[in-house]
């Protein structure tokens, strides 16, 4: 198994979210990844949003997972994301800090709409 690809976020928290970003061009690819995750893991997977939601600057879907799954799921995501950008962040209850300090990216980072936390 390859090392965890994240550079900033470590497995220091009990709960995490992964937000998979997509657009009109990559929508089918994201649907396929969502199905793969659903078949491979017992995680809660959120709605497939084809609109902007919260601080996310792209269409997205969310995956909720815990610290026991962190290392293996991050590696799996990196191997299966096929170019999609994925935001990984802790879920501590402090949404602003979770989305500004306790986060990392698989793929190209995006600018979050932090005004959503106002």
UniProtKB/TrEMBL annotation:
InterPro entries: DOPA-like_sf, DOPA_dioxygen. It comes from the Bacteria. Transmembrane segments: none annotated. One of its GO terms (molecular function) is dioxygenase activity. The keyword RNA-binding does not apply. The keyword Mitochondrion does not apply. Pfam families: DOPA_dioxygen (PF08883). Keywords: Dioxygenase, Oxidoreductase. This is 4,5-dioxygenase. The lineage of its organism: Bacteria, Pseudomonadati, Pseudomonadota, Gammaproteobacteria, Vibrionales.
